[in-house]
Amino acid sequence: MTAAVPALPVPRLVVWRHGRTEWNATGRFQGQLDPPLDAEGRGQAARTAPHLVAGGLAPERTVVVSSDLVRAAETATALTGLLDAPLRLDERLREHGLGCWEGLTREEVAARYPEQYADWLAGRPVQGRGGEDAPAVAARALAALTELPEAEVAVVVTHGGTAGRLVEALLELGPEHRRVFGPLANCGWSELVRQGTRWRLMRHNCTVADVAAPTAEAAPARSAAAPVEAGATPEEATPATAQDADAVA
């Protein structure tokens, strides 16, 4: 059984993962360590923010809240700058704490902690790593959202692992349904709306095409069905590319 979802003061959520960091690009687990966006990550944020605004965000009806880790906060400022809206920072939206894996590459984890790595690849709980477990991540992220001011929409700027646990909690999915949804790409977003007493996932892992967008227009978005280069968080999916490393859940 899953815990009851608390009432939130907004009926629509846009859950937006931060842009790329050098650690993403080199396959290094970040967790709650704090590397900044790289040049591509800053470009991703700048290209994506106009598209989010064009999707119906108005300053007087939108609240933007972000993890206080610099890669998320910097991503969020690309949006608040366009909206001329304040940015709320909340440490409860930080990435999943990874304990002894933080700062290591996949190869280093596999060499130092082979049993943990095997559990991770198989989708089993990772024992002995330290850090946080998935329910605790979901609980703190939900608690942060319950304290938002009333608004028509909240943009939640967070991390791959935390975004996954938050979406699963909102949809009331139990641990047996982990990894049903693929992870967010760098600067990918999902949208949920409340219908009655339940949340419904309307869009998942949307990304803006990797082309320069005119200042006043958003670049075209592509769906999650298309391959993305910087998508999976390391415990969420297959070990496909170096950019996969971000979060563990």
- Name the CATH homologous superfamily: Phosphoglycerate mutase-like
Report the average pLDDT across residues. Answer: 86
Q: Specify the CATH architecture.
A: 3-Layer(aba) Sandwich
| First-residue to last-residue Cα separation | 18 Å
Percent helix:
25-40%
CATH class: Alpha Beta
Which radius of gyration do the C-alpha atoms yield? 17 Å
Number of separate structural domains:
1
Question: What spatial order of strands do you see in the largest sheet?
Answer: 3-2-4-1-5-6-7
Topology of this protein?
Elements: E1 12-17, H1 22-26, H2 39-54, E2 62-66, H3 70-83, E3 87-89, H4 106-112, H5 114-122, H6 134-146, E4 153-158, H7 160-170, E5 189-195, E6 198-208, E7 221-222
Parallel strand pairs: 1-4, 2-3, 2-4
Antiparallel strand pairs: 1-5, 5-6, 6-7
Structure described in brief:
With 249 residues, this protein is α/β, with parallel strands linked by helices. 30% of the residues lie in helices and 16% in strands. The active site is at 18 (tele-phosphohistidine intermediate), 95 (proton donor/acceptor).
Structural features, described:
With 249 residues, this protein is of the alpha/beta class. The chain has a single domain (15-244), classed as Rossmann fold (3-Layer(aba) Sandwich). It is built from 7 helices and 7 strands, in the order βααβαβαααβαβββ. It has helices at 22-26, 39-54, 70-83, 106-112, 114-122, 134-146, 160-170, and strands spanning 12-17, 62-66, 87-89, 153-158, 189-195, 198-208, 221-222. It has a 7-stranded mixed sheet, sandwiched between helices. The longest helix has 16 residues, at 39-54. The two termini are 18 Å apart. The model is unreliable at 210-219, 223-232 and 235-249 (pLDDT under 50).
